[in-house]
Amino acid sequence: MFFKEVNRKDSGDTIISNIFIDIFMPMANGLYVQVYLMGYRQACDPKANPNFNNVSLAKNLGVPLSDVINAWKYWEQKNIVKMHKNGVDDDFDFSIEFIDLRNYYNNNIDNSVVQPVQSDTDKLLEARDNPSIVRMFNSINKIIGRPLAPSENIKILELINEYNLTPDLVVYAYEYSKEQKNGNPKPINYVESVLRGWYDANIISVEDAKNSFVARKDRYSIYRSVLNQLGFSNRQPTDSEKEIIDIWIDKYNFSPELISYACSKSINTPNPSISYINGIIENWYSKDITTLEDVKKEEEEFRANKQKEITKTKTETKNHNYNNNYNKDRTPKVVTRYHNSFNEHFRKYSEDELEAKLLRVQNSKKAK
């Protein structure tokens, strides 16, 4: 039972068509419904702020402006709003025209035969006639260990229609969700968030999902390898570190081997960090070095140039020393009168006479 409290104080009401509530709202993303309702409230209020636009709506809901525009595009596909571009330069500046749902409903059905809105029971009965849907429900029952509630069956059917999903992908989403935390089954809302994420990532088959997991696993292994080489094996990479590493892979197209080689340059660094490695990689990228072979070639050229400088320095030093010695040898020897008299004095004696003279001098000293 549902009823409404009566309040004499009028704070304003916005009348929402039951056509929107019964037909369009159940199949829509919750955020898209919020965008529609808040925009419709502004359209119905004659006292509404004329400057209230999509930017204001995004701020009120606390979501990116792109999400608001995506919501209006969704409702335009459902033919219940029209988007009118206000300017040429701004891709996000739209005015929204709300279509009269009663006229839309009357103009899009056969007036001679009024088709009733299909009930949840009718949806389930119709689904039972589809073998692939029946297999899907049976598989999900085994995964979660209990029969699905009717409301869960209806929700799954709505997700299939909204995101154009295959039954196999829905089953795989339940398997994936169960594996995330100790093998415990997850509620339908969790599975819905997984399927929505896959839809946004353009994952439309089980094979796409598995390939995505492999790519994500490979990317995570690179994160871990970088941190391990930097000595941070006991923590997870931060979002900013992931963004930097993603640039190395996605923008620079560097291989894991080349990234690992860059990390090896931090072995003798006292405080290695992602920023230090990023400096090395950005330097390589600026020089159009994108492979390990390019790095080895650049290092070999550096060593060759260094050896040339060393050889040149040794040659210059050797020439300098040679010139000094040459000049030294050519310097005239200074011979004093003392040197001449000394040499002439000792040339008068033979070796035996000098030795005898030396002995006499020694003996005379002992006698004293």
TrEMBL record:
SUPFAM superfamilies per UniProt: DnaD domain-like
Xref: Pfam families: DnaB_2
The family database entries (InterPro entries) matched by this protein are listed as: DNA_replication_prd_bac (IPR017019), DnaB/C_C (IPR006343), DnaD (IPR053162), DnaD-like_sf (IPR034829)
Specify the DnaB/C C-terminal domain's residue ranges.
Answer: 137-211, 234-298
Q: Entry's NCBIfam families?
A: DnaD_dom
Tell me the protein's name: DnaB/C C-terminal domain-containing protein
Q: Which organism is it from?
A: human gut metagenome
Taxonomic lineage per UniProt?
unclassified sequences, metagenomes, organismal metagenomes
